Amino acid sequence: MKTIKKILMSLLNLLKRLFVPRKKEAIDVYKEEALLSPGKVIAKRFIKNKLAIIGIGGFIFIFLFSFGLSLIVPLDLTYTNTFHRNLPPNYSYLNVPKQLVNEGIVEISSGNANSIGLSEAGNVYVWGANYRDIKDIPEDVKNANIINVEAGSQHMMAEDSNGKWYLWGYNHMNQAQIPDRFVQAFQNDAIRDMFGGIERTAAITESGAIYIWGVGANNIGDVMNRSPYVYYEDDDDTKPQIKAVSVTMNFNNALVLLEDGTIRMIGVQSDVARAIPVELTNGTVNVIQIGLTIYNGFALGSNGRVYVWGDDAFGLTNANIPEGADNNIKSMGIGYEHAVTLSNDGKVYAWGNNRIKQIDLPNNLDNIERIFIDTNQNYAIDENGEVHTWGLKGFLLGSDEQGRNFIIQLIHGGRITLVVGAVAVVISTIIGVTVGLTAGFFGGRIDNILMRFAEIVSSFPFLPFAITLSALLLNTATTEIQRMLMVMFILGVLSWTGLARLIRGQILSERERDYVLAAKALGIKQRHIIWRHVFPAIISIVIVNATLGYAGSLLTEAGLSFLGFGVQKPSPSWGNILTAAQDINVIRMYWWRWILPGLAIIIAALSINLMGDALRDAMDPKNAER
Amino acid sequence: MLKFLIKRIISLIPVVIFISIMLFVVMRSMPGDPVRYMLPPGSVQDPEIYQSLYDAMRKELGLDRNIVIQYFIWVSKMVTGDFGYSTLYQASVNDIIGEPLKNSILINVFSITLAFLISIPVGIKSAVKKDSLHDRGWQIFSLVGISMPTFFIGLSLIFVFALTLGWLPSGGMPYQNPGSPEYIAQFLRHLILPVTTLTLGALAGTIRYVRGAMLDALSKDYIRTARSKGLREKVVIYSHAFRNALIPVVTILGFSIVGLFGGSAITEQIFVWNGIGTVLIRALNVKDYNLVLVMNMFYAVLALGSNILMDVGYAIVDPRVKLD
């Protein structure tokens, strides 16, 4: 009992000591200063300053963001993805609406950054990034009893129970509307089904003819512009027509599945068009499902076998297919660069490109009944109706004009900006200290010459000279590192004069002090007197100046890079990321591409300025009174 | 006064010569052949005719001479007011520089005036009512302001006032019927956003500076004396403190002129404003070194000139300073 009480008491004490602020004996300021070393006094004053803490917090955040994260996420300068250009910040591509799950999923179809879902109640749901007005489901669609939905790359389609089709979304190639020239044809021969492609739409009519429109539709020479496509037995137009059942498209081709279980290719004579296995076209195999990526074609036979043909791209061809993935297959889903199959015993297999983690299957994929895979978003539904998702979750801070994840650009841009600024400050501090010390300590003619020189350099307007120097020197730099060093060098060389002048002034007063006289009397070498005795006396000025100068050099680097005279692409820096904002469309439509890097610069510069101000106040309390 | 000016200008001559030599040598030692830009290879089919044309052009530009002689020729031309030929504009620099110069001076003079008209009263009030809400507010404003790249201010203004609200043009300049009232109205509309950007960019620094100078002056003994004499607070602040705070304010004014003129290159670029900054950037991009050289000399002379102005300003605001 006693021991327990003892332990409890000690625990209580510990907590008290940890969390209850202790009453301090009040020491008066002068006594305290006498007790503490100057460094400790400064540190104490600094920490007491709330703004300083905000500054430190901000800087640590920026530092961890750019340096910490740059270790985790690598920068791939060559990465481009046309499907993901200029997407707004959104991380909910895979967040299937709860209501849709509750109502029961009939179908899910995905585009570049969105998915459309149809519930058993006939309701349509769209989720993912909100752009191209794609999430604004038309009122007609909301009111109608929808029985079929389909997604194109950036547009959506829905069919109601009366056979009426609704299209909406990105329409710059008229892909999200039925073209006038087909209206008449569709009145006589109603649309049975529609298929979305990359800025294209395909429709199959009741008679089994295929109409394709969208990209290239105005281009008479375009191979996809010969609608309608109609197929006959033995490809002989005197024999009976065979109806088309489904179509899938890539940029140059469209793969068609016909009623008799054979397949055909529309479009240019590409490798994937040439390499179709004969057994798929001559009726040997009864094809039930088809798929098409840029370089590969896929077909699922009624025998449960998966056929893959075409070039060896993205690891999609036969050799890369995981064991069991092409046998005893019930259904198949083909993304932009990956393939997924579902076996008769409910197992899911995936292969192909894993750049966006398309084929990183979740662990608990058992007893799957249906899969919906079109682009990079993957949905699998198990026997309990539970939805499993994997693939592209979205872009937390949006994407840029090359389809790269913008947060990665920001992280690595920050790293480069911070390093360039820091090195520039180090260079300017070294020059400034050396010149200031020399001029101040030796005086006379040396002082005169050095200060005249400093005056000349400081009288240059900074920016024009910096961009001139940069434009000239960048001609001579070849590698990326060299170019970056140039920028640091230019920033450093043009901004040392203020510090030099300040230090010279300090030294002039400092060298008259008794301790310098004593050192001289002791016969200590001049170099030693300067560095060991005088320099420590002015170190505080150097530190404060370097800190404030750091903020300035961040801003200057940003300005230079913004104009294209600083860090050069493809190496990102916050400044050259912002160069994109010279295009008025970027300012108007893609706010994240200029506001976010701008904010990053502001946060970095502001926190450094706060720290610098607090440091100055801590070192020179008289100044803080102001 | 005149004597001082002459003396000061004479003392600057070696500096100008030094700068011009440096600039000249740097420009001439750059890779890239201006003649090739004016006469692209392949523009003439026959290589021999091309070579003769090329040589003639080189001779015309004086590029075949020794670099020292080239320098002297260039300097003598500059002194007589002949700024040479711009390969970018395919015209004499004299002919093309007037318009951009005028435009740049216009936005800079506007914004410097505005910046000081705002920052002097604000700075004084901040210093007098130190730690008041007014002071805190402007302190935060200027702290954020000095941490913000000027071009970000410009982009934000474009986003809000040009793209979202549609009140003002996002950039460019009017070109129809120069001189007509509509032209002037259009011109002024185009002027608002660049001037606001430059003003906001300069304001943060100047307010901080004016406030600091005022606080310094207010802490002096003569202020206490003035107050104890029973002078009205207005008199104390404006005739005693502000008069003394003007000296550092003149310094920052001088620096602002140089800084603004230099920094306005970015603002001009954003707002597609045909000023000297835009000309310099274009000249650099197409390696029109002669134009670059002239522009940089202009900036250097501007900087040195504003140094002299600063000295004169000191003498005007502070009777203790004597110019001789």
Report on the structure:
The complex is a heterodimer of chains A (626) and B (324). Chain A is α+β, with helices and mostly antiparallel strands. In chain A, a hairpin with a 4-residue loop joins strand 13 and strand 14. The longest helix of chain A has 38 residues, at 526-563. Chain A is elongated. The relative contact order of chain A is 0.09. The model of chain A has no long low-confidence stretch (mean pLDDT 86). With 324 residues, chain B is mainly alpha-helical. Chain B has 2 domains: 32-82, no CATH class; 96-317, MetI-like (MetI-like fold, Orthogonal Bundle), CATH 1.10.3720.10. Chain B is 77% helix and 1% strand. Chain B has 12 helices and 2 strands. Chain B has a two-stranded antiparallel ribbon with strand order 1-2. In chain B, helix 6 (133-146) crosses helix 8, helix 7 (150-164) crosses helix 8 and helix 11 (276-285) runs antiparallel to helix 12 (289-317). The longest helix of chain B is centred in the middle third of the chain and has 38 residues, at 181-218. Chain B starts with a helix and ends in a 7-residue tail after the last helix. At the A-B interface, helix 11, helix 12, helix 16, helix 18 and helix 19 of A face helix 1, helix 6, helix 7, helix 8 and helix 10 of B.
